[in-house]
Amino acid sequence: MEYFLQQLINGLTLGAIYGLIAIGYTMVYGIIGMINFAHGDIYMIGAFMAIIWFLVTGLLGITWVPLAILVMLVLSMIFTATYGWTIERFAYKPLRGSQRLAALISAIGMSIFLENYVQLLQGARVKPLQPMVQGGIAVMERADGFVVNLSYLQIIIMALTLALMLGFSQLISRTELGRRQRACEQDQTMAALLGVDVDRTISITFVIGAALAAVAGVMVTLYYGVIDFYIGFLAGLKAFTAAVLGGIGSITGAMVGGLLIGLIEAYWSAYFSVEYKDVAAFSILVLVLIFRPYGILGKPEIEKV
Amino acid sequence: MASDKTPLLEVEHLTMRFGGLVAVDDVSFVAADREITAIIGPNGAGKTTVFNCLTGFYKPTVGMLRMTRNGSEFLLERMEGHAIARVAGVARTFQNIRLFANMSVLENLLVAQHNKLQLASAFSLAGVFGFKGYRKAEREAIDQARYWLDRINLLARADFSAGNLPYGDQRRLEIARAMCTGPAMLCLDEPAAGLNPRESGDLNELLTFIRDEHKTGVLLIEHDMSVVMKISDHVVVLDYGRKISDGSPAEVRADPAVIRAYLGEEEDEDLPDEIAADLAGKQEAGTARPEGQG
């Protein structure tokens, strides 16, 4: 029971991170129907930004941890968002209107480029970050001394994700920008005829997606304490799985899918084998694609003839 | 005829070629402000192509499209789609219905007003937090939407999903949505297609209301002669991409070139009878159905 609870906490934390990345996939897919395979690497950029800005806060002498984390978070989001915008502008926008496959291949190319770019600039070795937030709350204790621990960092990650999700769903359902995005999602030409700047709306979508991925990157850096240039590949694929599982194009679906993938991974590692946790996650992808290709919350797409 | 009125849109020597096919061939006409200008012609005459050039879907091979709005001139052929709508004030509907089916009726009308809202919301940041200025702007946008919903009798269904409305209501909602962009010219591509006589009567009323009360020019592609002859101030007739007649409905109706284009010189006899009857003046028949897509 205690062990189960601990895995629940771990799984939800991991799932929150996957969910944040998955939103980026699902939003971009919703609006331009493209799987942005470079999105995992955007998250990796976010993680490196976290280390860079951590060093800068150190240089500036900001030692109060909450402020340092806030500075890291905000600056990483801004800079990663700029990456997102630039990538869209150079790698995808010129291909808009051509075949879907062209943009997809461009995305894969962008992913390879980003990995190598970071490898060249930052080196191939693993980057460590000393733990900034330590301690936690002992939720429960078993007779043999096993303590169910909810660390402060896990609380931060879950609370931040929850806050971002709430703010974000407000943005989509209530604001003018959200309406604009939903309109572009359904009919770009009609939206343009109503005066909506479709290109800008798409750019903003990429910027928001990248900013959320940056949050995930910063959190992962704080959580695990080590990153390298290759973390984006696997995390990206898993977040993509989460997006497909939840129903690609659905924002809530992305979050639900992220949490499920996180939980599956945590429980699989705990009760079966850590080595095969990726197999578990990707088997889900296979099963979903076979039995419910539109995901948990997605709607079956009816092709109009 | 139109020379004494303020020109709203001047089309000069518009030519659109697709490879070897000349869809529109050297067409010039003037649509005056606060008038309903109808573009008619048999199927494949190039009417929709003219619209597509006007709204930036096609870049014309040759020609100039000059739009005059509040004293400033815009060359539509050089502008991007959203700027045509936003800056030059051209709004358009399509032959098929293109509402945002998954959004509510109200939201459809709010999307059309997003320019105002965008500025007021400081690019949505204020919207998330519900600041005062944004709330005010949004209330104004909702009032505007409510005004049009009232006009088209859909106020009670504001929260319905647009895709679930009956066909005739969807047609009118599209026109209302186009009007919410605050256009100087409204381009309607076969708005009466598929409407029953009563619905097309409502449409006539809506269009004359738009012309008279909102001081908006209307450019209309229509096959339903009961609509065209009754409400247009000015009719342009196209055939095989060329303009064959231009004038008041009465003038056009009497033009031998128009009658020839509709009746044909040989063969096809089954379809055009109805249209010929309409052209000959039986406008009130009301039974004329659109003969399909142009």
Automatic annotation (TrEMBL), chain A:
One of its GO terms (biological process) is D-alanine transmembrane transport. The keyword Membrane applies. The chain crosses the membrane at residues 12-35, 42-62, 68-87, 99-118, 152-172, 204-227, 239-267, 279-297. InterPro entries: ABC_transp_permease (IPR001851), BCAA_transport_permease (IPR052157). One of its GO terms (molecular function) is L-phenylalanine transmembrane transporter activity. GO terms for cellular component: plasma membrane. It is a multi-pass membrane protein. Keywords: Amino-acid transport, Cell inner membrane, Cell membrane, Membrane, Transmembrane, Transmembrane helix, Transport. The keyword rRNA processing does not apply. It comes from the Bacteria. It is found in: Cell membrane. Belongs to the binding-protein-dependent transport system permease family. LivHM subfamily. PANTHER family: BRANCHED-CHAIN AMINO ACID TRANSPORT SYSTEM PERMEASE PROTEIN LIVH (PTHR11795), HIGH-AFFINITY BRANCHED-CHAIN AMINO ACID TRANSPORT SYSTEM PERMEASE PROTEIN LIVH (PTHR11795:SF371). This is Amino acid/amide ABC transporter membrane protein 1, HAAT family.
From TrEMBL, chain B:
The keyword ATP-binding applies. The keyword Cytoplasm does not apply. Keywords: Amino-acid transport, ATP-binding, Nucleotide-binding, Transport. Residues 9-265 form the ABC transporter domain. Gene3D superfamilies: P-loop containing nucleotide triphosphate hydrolases (3.40.50.300). One of its GO terms (molecular function) is ATP binding. GO terms for biological process: D-alanine transmembrane transport; L-alanine transport; L-isoleucine import across plasma membrane; L-valine import across plasma membrane. PROSITE patterns: ABC_TRANSPORTER_2. Residues 265-294 are annotated as: Disordered. One of its GO terms (cellular component) is plasma membrane. It comes from the Bacteria. Pfam families: ABC_tran (PF00005), BCA_ABC_TP_C (PF12399). Residues 265-276 have a biased composition (Acidic residues). Belongs to the ABC transporter superfamily. PANTHER family: CONSERVED COMPONENT OF ABC TRANSPORTER FOR NATURAL AMINO ACIDS-RELATED (PTHR45772), HIGH-AFFINITY BRANCHED-CHAIN AMINO ACID TRANSPORT ATP-BINDING PROTEIN LIVG (PTHR45772:SF11). This is Amino acid/amide ABC transporter ATP-binding protein 1, HAAT family.
